[in-house]
What does this fold into?
Amino acid sequence: MASRILHIGAVGSGQTTKILNNLVSLSTVAAVAEALRLAADLGLDTAAVRHALESASADSFTLRHWDFFEGEWLSGGREAAAELVAKDLHLANSLDTTRPPLMADAATHALRRHLGL
It folds into this structure.
């Protein structure tokens, strides 16, 4: 599944890094969803906007594979996707109980709106 195997540190460090990756990834999904929703609301051609974003500083794996996030990622239903998002962002929040990541809260809100929940 992984194209690279990396040594991060002590036992458990890989799992923690995966949680951090999911935080960044889900925050990016939320940002792309919000940008494309706003583009549509403004009457812009979302395919053209997406292409422009891919050609600029907003480019990302998530943006380049947006069809996956709009299709296969949701194939189990929006509720199932929301449960996975909630699990991953809860894990991210649990890493630092003194100051949970603000991106996790913003991503949760944006993704729930995107999923229609």
